[in-house]
């Protein structure tokens, strides 16, 4: 009898977790959509401001990315390890 009760409780917990995961997935989708809408609006407004006042837009624009990320990233595969003498 205890086995059946444990199985029923486990099944109820599993269903509750499944429902919560669905709600969280929908919330995440809504947040992701809001993020991209805000990015789109920000870019659109920034381009409007740059058309109105080109001098201030150049000062406020982020610096251009360097091709290799500014030299701060070094892939581990490019580092040569010294040979051990043994």
Task: Fill in the keyword field for this structure.
86 residues; mainly alpha; 67% helix; flat
Mean pLDDT: 83
Rg (CA only): 27 Å
Strand content: under 5%
The biggest beta sheet is recorded as: none
Measured distance between first and last alpha carbons = 66 Å
Order of helices and strands: HH
Outline the low-pLDDT stretches: none
Number of strands: 0
List the total number of helices: 2
User: Would you tell me the structural class of the helices and strands?
Assistant: mainly alpha
Please state the oligomeric state of the protein chains shown.
single chain
Give the overall form.
Answer: flat
Helix fraction bin: 55-70%
Can you tell me about this structure?
The protein is an all-alpha fold and 86 residues long. The chain is 67% helix and 0% strand. The protein contains two helices and no strands. It has helices at 2-52, 54-60. Helix 1 crosses helix 2 (54-60). The protein starts with a helix and ends in a 26-residue tail after the last helix. The relative contact order is 0.04. The model has no long low-confidence stretch (mean pLDDT 83).
What is the compact description of this entry?
With 86 residues, this protein is mostly helical.
């Amino acid at each position: 009898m205890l086995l059946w009760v444990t199985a029923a409780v486990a099944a109820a917990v599993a269903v509750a977790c499944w429902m919560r995961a669905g709600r969280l997935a929908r919330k995440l989708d809504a947040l992701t959509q809001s993020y991209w809408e805000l990015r789109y609006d920000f870019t659109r407004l920034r381009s409007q401001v740059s058309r109105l006042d080109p001098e201030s837009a150049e000062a406020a624009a982020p610096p251009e990315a360097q091709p290799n990320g500014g030299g701060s990233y070094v892939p581990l595969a490019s580092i040569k390890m010294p040979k051990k003498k043994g």
